Amino acid sequence: MRQFANGAARRGYGGSVLLDRLGRPLRDLRISVTDRCNLRCTYCMPASVFGPDYAFLPRAELLTFEEIERLSRAFVALGVRKLRLTGGEPLLRRDLPELVARLSGIEGVDDIALTTNGLLLPRLAADLKAAGLKRVTVSLDSLDPEVFGQMNGLNVHPQRVLDGIEAALKAGLGVKVNTVVQRGVNDAGLRELWLALREQAVVRFIEFMDVGNHNGWNLDAVVPSREVLARLSANGTGAEFQPVNPHYRGEVAARHQDGAGHEVGLISSVTAPFCGDCSRARLSAVGVLYTCLFADQGTDLRAPLRAGADDAALRELIAGVWQGRRDRYSEERGEVTRERKVEMSHIGG
Ligand code: SAM
User: Fold this and answer.
1) What are the pLDDT digits (tens) for 161-197?
2) CB–CB of 137/114 below 8 Å?
3) Which residues bind GTP (predicted)?
4) In 172-310, which ranges are continuous DSSP H helix?
5) CB neighbours of 101 closer than 8 A, spacing ≥ 6?
6) How far apart are CA 145 and CA 295, in angstroms?
C-alpha cells in the first residue's frame, strides 16, 4: 500500500512526500548508466581487480534509455526532484546527451546533474548542455601529476581533467569539483588544488569511505574534514573559515567561507555521517534499486519492467521499497559489518 505522509512543513520540505521508516523523504535519484570506467582509481576500481579480464556487464544487461526514462518518471511521480547520472564513467555511455534530453523532458524534475571524471567533457560538454544538463561534478584528486597518476591507476595527467572543467565552463555548465582525501596519498596538495580551482568551481573534499569491497579502507587513511580545513588555510589553523548556511535541507557538503568569500565544501561521510537527511535512491546500470551507498542488496526493477509491469505497478514497487527503508550504514559504521557491499562502479557515488 502506498502511503504519503504530510510532514512537509514540520520537516522543512515542500509538498506531499513519501517517507521511509526513519521519516526521510524520497527526493533524489542517482542513476548509474554503465559499470565501465576509463580510469582505475585505487580507492574505487583498482586495476588489480578491474583488469583486462574483468567481466563488465554486456550491453543487453544495461537498462536502455527508454527504460531509464520510464523508471525515472515513476520516481518523479513519487517525489524525486533531482536526477544525477553517474557510473562507472557516465560519459562512456554512448549517446548520453540523448538520455539527458529525455530526462529533462520529465515534468517535475528541478535539476539534472552528472558526476564525471571529466576526461570526455571536451568532446561532450556542449551537447550535454544543449540537451538540458545544468551542471557537472568533476572528480579531481590532485594537481600533482605523479600523485594523480598513481591515484587514477593509469597515469592520466591532471591537465586532462582541467581541460574537461574548462570545456564544461565554456559550455555554460555549473561546475563542482570532488576530491577524495586519503592520508599520506594526496593530503599534502589540498591547498594547492583549492587555490587553483576556487575561482571557477566549488571544491568539495570528501572523506575516504569504505565503499565496495576492494579499496583496502581503514580509518587511519581518513583525513577528518576539520583537518582538511586546517590544511586549506594559510596559517594551518583553519580559523579564517566560517560555516555558511546550507542552501537546502539535506545538503551533504558543509560549506565554509574564508574572509574573502572563497568557498569550500566538506563532505564528512565518516566523521559526521548525514544518514538522517539522506533522501537518495540509487539505480544501478542493470536496474537494481538500492536505498544506501553501502547496501549489500537491492530490488530488481528491470525484471518487472521487462515483464510488462505498468506504471502504477512500478510506482507501487518503488514506494514499497522506500517505505521499508531503514538504512543508516554510515551512522552504524563500526557496529555492523557487511559481508559484501555493492561496488561503487555499479551504483555510482
Ligand atoms: N566516474 C565518475 C567520477 O569519476 O566522478 C562517477 C563515478 S565515481 C564512483 C563518483 C564519485 O565517487 C567520485 O567523485 C569518486 O571520487 C567518489 N568515490 C569513489 N570511491 C570513493 C571512496 N572510497 N570514498 C569516497 N569517495 C569515493
Assistant:
1) 999 999 999 999 999 999 999 999 999 999 999 999 9
2) yes
3) 30, 84, 115, 176, 280-282
4) 190-197, 225-232, 302-306
5) 131, 132
6) 34
Amino acid code (one letter) for 72: S
Report how far ligand 1's centroid is from the alpha carbon of 39 (Å): 11
Pocket of ligand 1 (CB under 6 A): 37, 43-44, 86-87, 89, 115-117, 139, 178, 180, 206, 208-209, 211, 215, 344, 348-349
Residues contacting residue 194 through CB under 8 Å, at least 6 positions apart: 203, 232, 264
Q: How do 288-290 and 135-139 pair as beta strands?
A: unpaired
Inter-residue contact 21 to 325 (CB < 8 Å): yes
Residue closest via CA to ligand 1's atom 1 equals 89
Alpha helices, H only, the chain: 8-11, 65-77, 96-104, 121-131, 145-151, 158-171, 190-197, 225-232, 302-306, 311-323, 329-332, 344-347
C-alpha cell of 333?
559504521
Contact 227, 246 (CB under 8 A): no
Contact status, residue 24 vs residue 277, Cβ threshold 8 Å: yes
Instruction: Provide the pLDDT for residue 17.
Output: 83
DSSP 139: E
Cell numbers given for 267: 563532505
Q: For residue 208, give the ligand 1 atom closest to its CA.
A: 24
Q: Return the residue whose CA atom lies nearest to atom 11 of ligand 1.
A: 349
Q: How many CB atoms lie within 10 A of CB 216?
A: 9
- Share the mean pLDDT of the chain: 92
